[in-house]
């Protein structure tokens, strides 16, 4: 009886032992698979962490690169630009003129790797004195500080970021002997204001600018003069000279450079221009100007376009006070242009860029009173820039004024920047 029981137990143990071993092996395989999955997850997290660290390091390098470059550059740098132009009306050769249009000296000084002073001093028309038509002016004078997050702040007298020309106005930077009409008659280049500004980027090619500055002084408007018809804002700008500041203006600009060679952007500027001037008939006058601009440089082509529009509001009483004066204040003014240039020849550091530009603008397109709006000015320009190295350009062009052929003219010029 005892032998049978033992034998039965041995047989049972022998028969059941493979099942136990089989169950343990399955559990081990399951654990191995689970550990493998956990290991893959850890590897993925490490890879994501490494990519994130690389992106952070790259961003940090981008932020620190300008500061590092600045640290290795000289503390004080002197630059400048200038242009001498010749204009010959084709229907009035006696009206031909040669003019040292401007000479500018710029001085930039770095106090440290993140803080700098930017200044530009300009002379126009060769001689500036009480008996001459020239003038001397401070074009820019501001201190800029770069912050650790990539933003930059500045305070002083600086250029308003409007259009394509105002902040890139050196003669080597634009086509044609003379600056285009849209960005001089509608956007009053070179347009600068005193105040504070902030700049930065959103990533993905987006950059932004904003600021609080002085604005225009409408009490300077001279209804007996044609100056306002040539450039409404150019006739009432303050340029930091004892600028009335009862009311300040705000501006903002947004640009996108997400595709190589392509720039798209726009800007807006607005502020009151009456400044509570005693006895002034338009204390609540407000001036606003905005623009849309684009530039595309695929291969040898250089294509650009600008549309700009301005508005002066709350001026009915002011215009009524002018009576029959010939130049009341317009309530709106606008203009646009299209331009195409092509590099047709290049040998060494010499390059020839023919171009064509068509622009249409109106400095008095509407009024709040019964004054008659001006007709649009339409100007076609064809010419070429011959670049010699990076700092010298010879220019020649012909301008055709549709509807006013007396203004047709041949222009020649030499410009430089360094």
Q: Could you give a quick summary of the protein structure above?
A:
The chain has about 425 residues and is α+β, with helices and mostly antiparallel strands. Helix content is about 20%, strand content about 45%. The protein has a 16-stranded antiparallel beta barrel.
Explain this structure:
Mean pLDDT is about 90; it is low at about 5-20. The protein is globular and about 105 Å long. About 20% of the residues lie in helices and about 45% in strands. The longest helix is centred in the N-terminal third of the chain and has 71 residues, at about 1-70. It has four helices and 17 strands. It has about 425 residues and is of the alpha+beta class. Strand 10 (about 285-295) and strand 11 (about 300-315) form a beta hairpin. The chain has helices spanning about 1-70, 180-185, 225-230, 315-320, and strands at about 75-90, 95-110, 115-125, 135-145, 150-160, 190-205, 205-215, 250-255, 260-270, 285-295, 300-315, 330-340, 345, 350-365, 375-390, 390-400, 410-415. A 16-stranded antiparallel barrel has the order 1-2-3-4-5-6-7-8-9-10-11-12-14-15-16-17.
* Range of strand content: 35-45%
Structural class: alpha+beta
Largest sheet: 16 strands, antiparallel, barrel
Measured distance between first and last alpha carbons: 116 Å
- Report the oligomer: single chain
Give the H and E element order. HEEEEEHEEHEEEEHEEEEEE
Number of strands: 17
Fraction of residues in helix: 10-25%
User: How many DSSP H or I helices?
Assistant: 4
Average pLDDT reading: 89
Question: What would you report as the Rg, rounded to the nearest angstrom?
Answer: 34 Å
Q: How are the strands ordered across the major sheet?
A: 1-2-3-4-5-6-7-8-9-10-11-12-14-15-16-17
| Unreliably modeled segments | 5-22
Shape: globular
């Amino acid at each position: 009886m005892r032998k049978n029981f033992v034998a039965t137990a041995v047989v049972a143990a022998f028969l059941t032992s493979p099942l136990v071993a089989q169950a343990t092996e399955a559990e081990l395989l399951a654990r191995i698979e689970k550990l493998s999955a956990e290991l893959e997850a850890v590897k993925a997290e490490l890879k994501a962490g490494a990519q994130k660290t690389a992106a952070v390091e790259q961003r940090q390098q981008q932020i620190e690169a300008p500061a590092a470059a600045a640290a290795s550059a000289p503390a004080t740098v002197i630059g400048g630009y200038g242009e001498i132009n010749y204009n010959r009306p084709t229907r009035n050769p006696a009206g031909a003129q040669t003019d040292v249009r401007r000479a500018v000296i710029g001085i930039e000084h770095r106090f440290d790797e993140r803080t700098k002073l930017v200044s530009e001093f300009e002379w126009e028309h060769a001689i500036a004195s009480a008996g001459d038509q020239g003038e001397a002016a401070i074009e820019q004078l501001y201190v800029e500080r770069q912050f650790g997050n990539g933003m930059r702040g500045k305070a002083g007298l600086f250029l308003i970021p409007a259009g394509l020309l105002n902040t890139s106005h050196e003669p080597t930077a634009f086509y044609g002997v003379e600056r285009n009409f849209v960005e001089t008659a509608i956007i009053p280049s070179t347009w600068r204001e005193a105040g504070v500004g902030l700049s930065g980027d959103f990533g993905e090619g987006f950059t932004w600018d904003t600021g609080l500055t002085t604005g225009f002084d409408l009490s300077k408007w001279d209804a007996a003069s044609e100056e306002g018809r040539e450039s409404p804002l150019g006739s009432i700008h303050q340029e930091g000279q004892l600028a009335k500041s009862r009311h300040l203006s705000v501006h903002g600009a947004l640009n996108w450079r997400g595709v190589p060679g392509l720039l798209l952007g726009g800007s807006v500027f607005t502020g009151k221009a009456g400044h509570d001037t005693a006895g002034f008939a338009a204390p609540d006058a407000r001036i606003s100007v905005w623009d849309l601009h684009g530039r595309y440089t695929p291969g040898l082509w250089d294509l650009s376009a600008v549309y700009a529009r301005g508005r002066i509001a709350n001026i009915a009483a002011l215009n009524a006070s002018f009576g029959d004066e010939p130049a009341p204040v317009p309530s709106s003014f606008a203009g646009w242009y299209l331009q195409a240039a092509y590099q047709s020849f290049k040998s060494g550091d010499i390059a020839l860029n023919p171009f064509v530009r068509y622009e249409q603008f109106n400095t008095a397109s509407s009024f709040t009173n019964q004054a008659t709006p001006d007709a649009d000015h339409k100007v076609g320009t064809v010419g070429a820039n011959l670049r010699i190295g990076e700092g010298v350009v010879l220019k020649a062009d012909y301008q055709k004024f549709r509807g006013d052929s007396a203004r047709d003219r041949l222009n020649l010029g030499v410009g430089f920047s360094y």
